[in-house]
């Protein structure tokens, strides 16, 4: 039900941007989508997705839409940034939404949140020259419009990295990685009806176990230039 809402919402938003023809999206009719090139990066917790996204954005001189997305969505929804951050990339149930909306007048419902996230991401992608990290962005936009990247690594490797870079103990590292991975997986399942780990949803999947962040950056850049025939 949620992914049907997302599809209808995406169609309406793109229609406002001038992409609606005969009441159907041009990319549904296999016409070339009119988006400027951009990159979406999906990632497993501890896989290096964030630093890779930062390095790719810097190399291309693109905007990085990461923490800044919460601020953009807050402006769109006219809510405090802290409220957006508290629900970011998390799935929720109808009962919890009803209870919270009664107890907390400032609470933002999941449908309001996803509507504004979709709006912000589509507008950014339309302009191009942006690297979008997470939020199911690759499920919102036609596959031909951007380079869809997935960054992953074996669970044990990600736990070790969390211990090293976050300065936390083993149990804490395991808890965080499992919690974050589950939240992201359920977020995509609930709102887009997709499996975040499905290889068919990406142009490039990188396992960072035996590569540096610089290696991963270079592979993403090469794939991006190849897809859009950039010299």
Instruction: Give me the number of helical elements.
Output: 10
The proportion of residues in beta strands is 5-15%
- So what's the overall shape? globular
Name the structural class.
Answer: alpha/beta
Specify the CATH architecture.
3-Layer(aba) Sandwich
Give the uncertain stretches in residue-range form. 16-31, 94-105
Largest sheet: 5 strands, parallel
What is the name of the CATH topology? Answer: Rossmann fold
Main-sheet strand order equals 4-5-3-6-7
> Mean pLDDT, rounded to whole units?
78
**Straight-line N-to-C gap:** 43 Å
Order of helices and strands: HEEEHEHHHHEHEHHEH
What do these coordinates show?
The protein has 231 residues and is of the alpha/beta class. The protein has one domain (2-17, 37-223): 3-Layer(aba) Sandwich (Rossmann fold). It contains ten helices and seven strands. The protein has helices spanning 2-16, 49-60, 67-77, 81-87, 94-103, 110-127, 137-140, 155-166, 170-192, 213-228, and strands spanning 20-21, 24-25, 39-43, 63-65, 130-133, 147-152, 204-207. The chain has a five-stranded parallel sheet, with helices on both faces. The longest helix has 23 residues, at 170-192. Mean pLDDT is 78; it is low at 16-31 and 94-105.
